[in-house]
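Write out the 3D structure for:
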Amino acid sequence: MPDLSRLLQPRSIAVIGGGAWCASVVEQCWKMGFAGPVWPVHPKRETLGGAATFRRLEDLPGVPDAVFIGVNRHVTIDTVRLLREMGAGGAVCFASGFREAQAETGDGGSLQEALLEAAGDMPIIGPNCYGFINYLDGALLWPDQHGGRRTDRGVAVLTQSSNMAINITMQRRGLPLAYVATAGNQAQLGLAEIGTALLEDDRVTALGLHVEGVGDLRAFEALGARARSLGKPVVALKAGRSDQAQAAAVSHTASLAGSDAGARALLRRLGMAQVDSLPSLLEVLKLLHFAGPLSTNRVVSMSCSGGEASLMADTALDHDVVFPPLSEAQHAGLRAALGPMVALANPLDYHTFIWTDVPRMAQTFTAMMQGDSAMGCLIADFPREDRCDPAAWECVFEAGERTAKAAAKPLALVATLPDAMSEAVAERLIAGGMVPLMGLAEALTAIAAAARLGRSAEAPDPLLLPGSPENLRTLSEAEAKAALAAHGVAVPAARRAADSAALEEAAAGIGLPLVIKAEGLAHKTEAGGVAFARDSVEAALAQAAKMPCDSWLVEELIEGAVAELLVGVTRDAAHGFVLTLAAGGVLTEVMGDSASLLLPATEAEIVDALRSLRMAPLLHGYRGKPGADMAAIARTVLAVQSYVEAHAGQLDEVEINPLICTETRAVAVDALIRIGDAT
């Protein structure tokens, strides 16, 4: 990866171009107090942004570390080549009209190739992006307004969208921003490479990503590994949750997996937390900056209202957060502070009668913080200062500060409404040693994410990368089962029949109980392509004669099912091979009960994924009923993985549905494989 340190932490900046965008870059560098020189370059203008210009790059008094290129796309290429020859540290390419505009211009792709050739090993960000703001050093290669300010330490936020980056700089949540950066169309440097470089700055505490597309999977794996080695958490907001993927796929797996499942599995595998909204991203980053990853998801909550206590408990049902029961020591401390009239619980309603009594409030909060928890949450919404008198809330600041100093764990002050905590209040809370969190759902999202990031995990094996197979074909059920059986998947005894006479012979050879299936149908049950015979075969043979097919598959009927599962793998070019485990049979998509992993997966990961299903109680034995053979299920999944590994360059998808799980075995009674030619 190119060295980005000179570009991201420059000592000198050059700005090439003469428009208002370029003038803004120059002006804002001075406003932010950038300590180094800023050299505008323009062949005709005398000044730009209040600074004297240089006619040519060759006239500069030194080689710039970072360059903002604000000229048209054709001149951009020539400028990049000259900068590389000069030995510049890197550049931001503002111009659009490269590969992202290929459909409109017809030459965007070729221009991008020329840009990459011109850059060589000199780092370039973009094209078609705003660049970055380094709030640590006051260095801006940024052509627009922003709402941030200098800081000594903070989080880095990286997005592909320049407009989203502007919005993030306008936050008023008390989140210290060290960097805000954009990646544009990632011609040379992707999110992973830029994100890794940002993490290398010792002053950066955590990284937030807005991800539209992953790009280079190996680069993202490297980002995850580097973040893990540095002990710096990464949080991602992944775009693309809408379900438009693979509508024409013949399997159930594709509709369950889709691109979002692959993205979630990838981020989880790499040890990154995922959020689903921009406010949540900022609140998670804030908690991580001030408190770091949490050792557990166990928390205590305190409010002066029973309604708020109930709201906290109810909202937590949708988040992976636990409120442990109070210990004897907590009971004793709370009784001493509150007397006998308050019902003690977690979440706690400590009542308003101690409001403004700072010593008793601090005593109450400190007693709650003594329990087996990773942090405490103090609920308080502050009044509008333009219409109300906030003096009565001084007690919250004072008691909270006393508690934060006495506690050995973080104390967050949570506003149930983001509107009810101003930036000034947030900054005062930070100065008092507390973590300001805005919005109840966002706060609980932050706590759950910080707890997930705090769980130690071993570095995963490298992803199994798929190929791009051509000439895809769907194997018959018999072919698919034979292929999987060769890798250890248990399948029923079976015979194929090409005509009615052979059908009767096959049925006699299998014996009762049996099942007759039409060949060539993707969803046989829905199409009337399945007939069962338990006591007599005649009715099943008559039903088979009416099936819309030319041949049949006769199999032993697997009975004694504890549960039915789906085991499927789809090729996801963006994320790898996605393994889906789900409730199987005819209700697969109706139930929507699934879990996804990326291959290769370990047996422990497979078992954990099975435990996460809503149908897990059936697998383990429910209400006195026997459970399934979990070891046999895990062996089957690993056998499917073995098949995928052996055909990674050719495979499009594989599915077992259902996998009949009994007390003693797991049998694939239906299977589908789509495979092609490796390219």
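The longest strand covers residues 651-661.
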